Amino acid sequence: MTLIDHEAELSRASAGGGGLWASPAYFLRRYPLGAAGAVIVLVIVLMALFADWITLFDPTTTDSRASLASPGGAHPLGADFMGRDMWSRIVYGARISLAVGIGSTALGCLIGVSIGLMSGYFGGWFDLVVQRFMDMLQSLPLLVMALVMAAALGPSISNTIIAISIPLVPTVARVIRSNTLMLREMPYVEAARAIGMNEFSIAVRHVLPNTLAPLIVLGTAQLGSAILVEAALSFLGLGIPEPHPSWGRMLSESAAEYVRTAPWLVIYPGLAISLAVFGTNLLGDALRDLLDPRLRH
Amino acid sequence: MTETSLAHKVATRKSESRSDDGAEALLEVHDLRTFFYLRRGVLKAVDGVSFSLRRGETLAIVGESGCGKSMTALSLMRLVPEPPGKLVGGSVNLAGVDLLKLGEQAMRGVRGKDISMIFQEPMTSLNPVMTIGTQIAEVLLLHEKLGRSAARRKVIDMLHLVGIPEPEQRAKEYPHQLSGGMRQRAMIAMALACHPKVLIADEPTTALDVTIQAQILEIILELQNVLGTAVILITHDLGVVAETAQRVIVMYAGRKVEEAAVGELFARPLHPYTRGLMASIPRLGLMRGAGIDTPGRLQEIPGIVPPLTNLPPGCAFAPRCAFADERCRMQYPAYEEKRPGHWAACWRSDTLYGGGDG
Lengths: 297, 358
What we know:
Chain A is an all-alpha fold. Chain A contains 13 helices and no strands. Chain A is elongated and about 75 Å long. Chain B is α/β, with parallel strands linked by helices.
């Protein structure tokens, strides 16, 4: 795509002539990979939302006759050794993955944004203390930190969300803080002071909304890691407890015993995890390019 | 030291009494001192500035970059970044209240309500993610007891008043959808929304297109007449001063060096620095007046402003002044009334320009 094309696309997109579909169409042309990622994410979201309509079996109902049924027939993706339908478990697993992924990312962002904003805007000793604490948190890799948290909290869905969200906090807080450090020097912050607004309102009304673009990018990127960490925790038995279907635990249940005899028990959950992470990462990359302030005009 | 500060005190007391016998003074600034405590020393950004402002008057503060004119404005608003800055002394009396003695909470009630400010950069003085209307409404919601819809109506009235076409439509737009001139109009609308007593305009036209500058100044002056606002116009553009102000203060290195009515100042500048500023304005006659082979050269003031952390003991302008003598270099000149209503701080103005007896 040449520069001229790019300019034309930009002007067409900003003119908004095509109505509702102009921006998606622009996104598709400009970021085909990102669009693919968006489609993958959308499919997973739809799967999670309409799980009841697109599955025939309850994901937790066992059926001894269908034990280790190969793919095809009534069980399009086969069944595990307890005869639970793999397709149902994958589809309902999307619910768990998304709930945990989005929940922990949102929680992590909420805490991270509050800390980052306060730390960056008000500075001083609070900033110093909080940032050293963030250094400590960040010195451990995401998975290790989540492992420690999950082991301490015990397995349950809400604990898994908390365990994954805490290691996300320092990353978010860092990004928001560095943005805030820049934004608090903007003339419109000074102008807000000049109309008599108090510092807290300025931070929330004038600084915070301007940090949302990087936050969206970061959130999307972190969503992929959160899904992956959930799978890893569940694989290790520290994440989502029975009977909820989790992609990670589905892998761990079958990996050792059935990988040769019933490979579909490993392939499909693995594929689901890979696709979900791949899709969110592609989307995150495209959003980063799209919202990069250097590309804005 | 003792002699100069004494002279300074006498001078400021004189200027105070002078403003008393004039019409009622709305804003009275006395001996304002704003210092910055930096690692390399104390930077005296504003050092003993006094002036008064009457209702509906326009006062211009002129000087080079870094002469303390913007810091004077920020000091009046109590918006000097602290630390490293500090308002070390003086008083700012607005309608009988000393702003420097107010608590932060009370001061917030004054900003935007009694004193407001227009900034130099209309491009970045508006928040890019908020609509114009929302931003102007903020000042109304902060200071006036207005509901959202009443504030909305008032915003549209203000936008109309500053000459923005289709105000209903524009109020819903974001800053990037407006031109520089339109944005500065929006800033003026925001600054004047609560009908402040004093408007500080810090280089309001510097960042704008020349063709827009005149329009913006005209709007400020027009609204000043309508609302009775007193304006402090901070600028380095003497052309703007001549068109708009009634009185002018010339600042150099954090201090007032000259003050006079605008006509008097342009007719008879008494400080060599003011003369230098005037000589450095491009004029049409400059080229014509010179010979055919030797095109007239624009005069510049030689040298640069001395570092404010390390000012010379005498007149701060002495190192750049063609007429400076030993006394100028050793002793800070008294700030005194050289002619009726015309004050200057220069040892040699009498001999140079015959200021004493007119």
